[in-house]
Design brief:
With 338 residues, the protein is α/β, with parallel strands linked by helices. It is built from 14 helices and ten strands. Helix 1 packs antiparallel against helix 2, helix 4 crosses helix 13 and helix 6 runs parallel beside helix 8.
């Protein structure tokens, strides 16, 4: 268990401390506490299921941001073989907030791209807290085009609060870099698989997320804006982020129901940071299953599938005026493709 604790994690940790204390006492005093330990273990498991089986949307956001949560390079270590990181966008420089490289998964060659946060203060500064600059998205696109040239599937790991909004990033064309990625990814002729492993924030997430198959870890979130940003804009009060989270419908369960993602990847009880290896194996199964189904599609079918997938997401309302009367109707974006 991590040293950093969320409020709802504390009751479970207290029980774990009691269990550990009894085990130490039993070892030193040679007294049999097995019955008491078994009772506490049972109580702990029951409590974990109660707590993590009824998390609010805001609590899931907190888990998605947990500082001990596995990041892209952690999953790469468990999922991939022969990972070789490649650097630079060939225009400005390298961006450590986005890692890109070549690898194999069960001997299948792939290109891996993902946001990377840091563990220490210095690492977070170096990686800009996982918020990529334009050169990061251009580096990612360079690797995507390489993947297309050599017919390698692309696997992306999304974990960012958003693309970096600083002046330097805007001066170097942040919006253009993301927009270009959206356009180019929509027409790639190789399979693209995306997994939201933590935070999936705004254009920073979708900049590497236009995929044939999109999955989310159970306690991740995926949103057009952060809960705090939404609360500040809509409620004029950033402290109302809990209410904004509920309204945004940004959890995996909500997004699967609304057709934004294809699958929810299960996490261990307590979150991905409790057992990174188990979480990685669950992700790996999803990747292998997706690659098996997508490999049957032609190049044109892959591009068409990706285009259609994103065109049909969402329902909006439009006002029409007929015979001087205002009339409202719901329209699916797919019907407006022409």
């Amino acid at each position: 268990m991590s040293e950093f604790l969320l409020d709802f994690e504390k009751p479970v940790v207290e029980l774990e401390k009691k269990i550990l204390s009894l085990k130490v006492s039993a070892e030193h005093s040679k007294i049999d506490f097995s019955s008491e330990i078994a009772d506490l273990e049972e109580k702990k498991e029951k409590l974990k299921k109660e707590i993590y089986g009824s998390l609010t949307s805001w609590q899931k956001v907190m888990l998605a941001r947990h500082p001990s949560r596995p990041y892209t390079l952690d999953y790469v270590k468990f999922i991939c073989e022969n990972f070789v990181e490649l650097h630079g966008d060939r225009a400005f420089g390298d961006d450590p907030a986005l890692v890109c490289g070549l690898a194999t998964i069960d001997n299948k060659p792939v290109v891996v791209i993902g946001h990377q946060k840091g563990r220490t203060v210095q690492e977070n500064i170096d990686r800009n807290f996982g918020m990529a600059h334009p050169e990061g998205y251009r580096k990612a696109l360079r690797l995507m085009k390489m993947a297309e040239k050599f017919n390698r599937p692309i696997v992306t790991f999304i974990d960012t609060a958003g693309a970096y909004p600083g002046i330097a990033a805007e001066e170097r064309g942040q919006a253009e870099a993301i927009a270009r990625n959206l356009r180019e990814m929509s027409s790639l002729e190789v399979p693209v698989i995306s997994i939201i492993i933590g935070e999936g924030g705004s254009g920073g997430a979708i900049g590497i997320g236009v995929a044939n198959k999109v999955a989310m870890l159970e306690n991740a979130y995926y949103s057009v804006i952060s809960p705090e940003g939404c609360a500040a804009i809509l409620f004029r009060d950033a402290s109302k982020s809990k209410e904004a989270t509920e309204a945004l419908k940004i959890t995996a369960k909500d997004l699967l129901k609304n057709g934004v993602i294809d699958e929810i990847i299960k996490e261990p009880v307590g979150g991905a940071h409790v057992d990174a290896v188990e979480t990685a194996m669950n992700i790996k199964r999803f990747i292998n299953k997706s690659l098996a189904s997508l490999s049957k599609m032609s190049k044109q079918e892959l591009a068409d599938d990706r285009y259609d997938k994103f065109r049909k997401i969402g329902v909006f309302e439009e006002e029409t005026v007929k015979n001087k009367k205002s009339k409202s109707k719901k329209t699916n974006t797919k019907s407006r493709r022409k």
